[in-house]
Each structure stands twice: as structure tokens, then as C-alpha cells.
Amino acid sequence: MSIRIDKGKCVRCGQCALVCPGGLIVQDEEKKAYIKYPKDCWGCAACLKECKVGAIKYFLGADIGGKGVYLYTLDEQDFLHWFIVNNDIQHRMTSNKRESNKY
Fold it and tell me: Domains of the chain, with CATH numbers?
């Protein structure tokens, strides 16, 4: 598993860098995010959930059926839309952020 950050979509908010538990995401001189050591990524997806513009893609490993499959999110106020892309076919799941952590 690994992440890739599209600097063209990055809006310089820095949220992904703030939530990365390994401190692997940093900002360049233009404040655009990038992952400093991709091989050290834990795969926790914290950055993915914080990115409001879908600039971060999370590639699934071949060991769990990935083979080019990736995941990204888009934030819409109270909802988080999860997109899984496989061979240009996109599947969407939506979670209500206010309800998702209720027990």
C-alpha cells in the first residue's frame, strides 16, 4: 500500500501533514504537500480522510487484490465520499461524518 499526492490538486492546507502519525508528509517551498519517505508509510489513511479535494490517492497492495486499484476521498460538509477506482470503473461509498463514530 502506498499513497501519492497530486501537487496539482493540493490546495496547501497542510491538514495531511498535521495528521500523518509518522511525520512523513511535508510541504515544499510552495506549501504543496508531498510524502517524504513513501516506503515508510503505515497505510493508516489518516491523510486521505483529511484531504478535502481528493489530492491524495491510496493505492491498494497486490496482496489484498490491489493491482492498480486506488482509493480517494472527497469531503462534502457532513459527508465523506469514498471512491474506489479499478480499471477506470469508479465505485462510491458515502459516510455521514456526524454518525460514523457513534456506538
Answer: 2-96 (3.30.70.20)
52 touches 43 (CB < 8 A):
no
pLDDT digit string, tens, across residues 35-89 = 998 888 888 889 988 998 999 998 876 655 567 788 888 888 889 898 988 888 8
Q: How many CB atoms lie within 10 A of CB 15?
A: 16
Three-state DSSP at 48 gives helix
Q: CA-to-CA distance for 32 and 29, rounded, in angstroms?
A: 7
Q: Buried b / exposed e across 56-71, counting CB within 10 Å, b at 16+?
A: bbbbbeeeeebeebbb
Q: Helix or strand or coil: residue 81?
A: strand
Task: Give the position of cell 459516510.
Answer: 95
